[in-house]
């Protein structure tokens, strides 16, 4: 089957069985084309909480599918490809954070949504890249323990100097591949281009950027900007989507190493197998764990 035939068959079965397909913005174009909604982690969690369908297929990584299940336990939630994890989400576990919390008892624990459901059970509030500054700003406590992404935490801390941040040593292996060497090289090659980066990038990279934002925010910025050239400092698929959205503009990668293999593992065939009911992984969560983890996601939606 070719791409078009696969897409048509997925759409036919999806409509027949009333299934909702959610795709993260890092998914390949052929997948975002058949999705009901494509967006950043925050958009996906909001969309998941209001989707009317009883079956949801997540084309993204595991923590995204778990977030859908946490919010909608009555729904059948599939992770389209069970191999799609997020290395950052596995960098810290519940036991480690429980120990750290004992050292900092008067700190509010803010966790990036890129964490496991288990880890969320010991955190106070969840954030995404697009909602982190707004949410942390609204927290009454001045003392913030931000996990697991040190880069995102440092970027949020810079916007909120009145708060007192403790950061741990975690981060996204993909975004950490681009440093100042790549910034200097691409800026020399494209002096007119604006540099748009994700806050998971290294601090000196975010400091030299013209715009820092979530995957969706980077896309919206480039689409709405009057500028004609952009250096994109996030996963390469965003550059690909932007080329489709704005064929009259030029987009350059900050580094061609900005590839998240976990986001790339999902194929149209995986999605077809999910809509047929013969593939993917059905997400199951222990009810007590789900309810504890839900507290910090509910707080995120309430404050965000
Ligand atoms: P966004 O919330 O910006 O989509 O980021 C998710 C992610 O995993 C980025 O690496
Ligand atoms: Fe995780 Fe980084 Fe991939 Fe995002 S890009 S899913 S943070 S490994």
Describe it.
The chain folds into three domains: 107 residues, Rossmann fold, CATH 3.40.50.10800; 79 residues, Rossmann fold, CATH 3.40.50.10800; 85 residues, Rossmann fold. The chain is globular and about 55 Å long. With 304 residues, the protein is of the alpha/beta class. It has 15 helices and 13 strands. It has a five-stranded mixed sheet with strand order 2-1-3-4-13, sandwiched between helices. It has a four-stranded parallel sheet with strand order 6-5-7-8. Strands 10-9-11-12 form a four-stranded parallel sheet, with helices on both faces. α12 links the parallel β11 and β12. Helix content is 44%, strand content 17%. The site of iron/sulfur cluster (SF4) has 14 residues, from α13.
